Automatic annotation (TrEMBL):
Organism: Virgibacillus natechei
Pfam families: ALAD
Transmembrane spans: none
Pathway as given in its UniProt record: Porphyrin-containing compound metabolism; protoporphyrin-IX biosynthesis; coproporphyrinogen-III from 5-aminolevulinate: step 1/4
Catalysed reaction, written as an equation: 2 5-aminolevulinate = porphobilinogen + 2 H2O + H(+)
Documented EC number(s): 4.2.1.24
Family as reported in the entry's similarity comment: Belongs to the ALAD family.
Stretch list, region Disordered: 1-22
Keywords annotated in UniProt: Heme biosynthesis, Lyase, Porphyrin biosynthesis
Record's subunit section: Homooctamer.
PROSITE patterns: D_ALA_DEHYDRATASE (PS00169)
Function: Catalyzes an early step in the biosynthesis of tetrapyrroles. Binds two molecules of 5-aminolevulinate per subunit, each at a distinct site, and catalyzes their condensation to form porphobilinogen.
Protein name per UniProt: Delta-aminolevulinic acid dehydratase
Length: 326
């Protein structure tokens, strides 16, 4: 048989598992993962979130159970959310000294100082109305909210948080938080900004886990329209100019084009947030035997890395760490 030498033989680099591993362009590593955790007020609580199999709300007295596993798996960073019993219109629980995130941070840094604590800096879990800021005349008051968000960031840094992650999408939030941190002496604490956060339908299970569903209206006046691309670049550029050290794109799976755009336009680490709805869909399909969970999850996370993500916030972090360790 005559061989046609006019075409390229790309299959040479796919000929075996070892060859494919040698030539692989993108890798998901345990060090790339940030695991979200929900700290709930109370005692002896470790309850599974109904819409998120394998994800738990954990009280402070049982926090070490989770931390021990996370540490043994080699996960280097966790993202903390607080779930308090008492809420008010100002979201006071977000910035008080003995708030859920603050207390959890102290406990973590005492037992596992090497684990990086990323503190979610928002008010929605703590406000009685479920919005990410102060309400005035039926809408979120941007500038009044900034003062409380800055106060929250400083209290989290005082508790020992390694990274402040503001998720509120208020205009100017990076400027206010950076200034407040610097004035309080925390010039070395970086800001991981939720720079690009869409008003997405993929957040439903998270709102169950964090008990943060808005009691009226929606968040479309401050979170972004899923139809918009250039707006994302404006948001990311503003946050970089204001002092952000990391840029989060949320959600990840249906916004990989935005991850790539942000990566191309900035020199900061880009973080893809693999959100709750993306997690729950895969878990539901896996529990029904419709998919190979491990293969699908690794394909998704690899796609995020290929799109330009340096880090990935994901509820799959423990599962992925176990697979990689195997």
């Amino acid at each position: 048989m005559t061989t046609n030498q006019d075409f390229k033989r790309h299959r040479r680099l796919r000929s075996s598992g070892s060859m494919r591993s040698l030539t692989r362009e993108n890798h998901v590593r345990t060090e790339d993962l940030i695991y979200p955790m929900f700290i709930i007020e109370g005692e002896n609580i470790k309850q599974e979130v109904p819409s998120m199999p394998g994800v738990f709300q954990v009280s402070l007295d049982r926090l070490n159970e989770e931390l021990k596993e996370i540490n043994e798996l080699g996960i280097k960073a966790i993202l903390l959310f607080g779930v308090p019993k008492e809420k008010d219109e100002q979201g006071t629980g977000a910035f008080i000294e003995d708030g859920m995130v603050q207390e959890a941070t102290r406990a973590i840094k005492k037992e596992y100082p090497e684990i990086l604590v990323v503190a979610d800096t928002c008010l929605c879990e703590y406000t009685s109305h479920g919005h990410c800021g102060v309400i005035h005349n039926g809408d979120v008051d941007n500038d009044a909210s900034l003062k409380l968000l800055a106060k929250t960031a400083v209290s989290q840094a005082q508790a020992g948080a390694d990274i402040i992650a503001p998720s509120n999408m208020m205009d100017g939030f990076v400027t206010f938080i950076r200034q407040a941190l610097d004035e309080a002496g925390y010039t070395n604490i970086p800001i991981m900004s939720y720079a690009v956060k869409y008003a997405s339908a993929f957040y439903g299970p998270f709102r169950d886990a964090a008990d943060s569903t808005p009691q009226f209206g929606d968040r479309k006046t401050y979170q972004m329209d899923p139809a918009n691309r250039l707006e994302a670049l404006r948001e990311a550029e503003s946050d970089m100019e204001e002092g952000a050290d990391f840029l989060i794109v949320k959600p990840a799976m249906t916004y990989l084009d935005i991850v790539r755009d942000v990566k191309n336009k900035s020199n900061a680490p880009v973080v893809a947030y693999n959100v709750s709805g993306e997690y729950s869909m895969v878990k539901a399909a896996a529990l029904n035997g419709w998919i190979n969970e491990q293969e699908l999850v690794m394909e998704k996370l690899t796609a995020m890395k290929r799109a330009g993500a340096d880090l990935i916030i994901t509820y799959f972090a423990k599962d992925v760490a176990k697979w990689l360790n195997q």
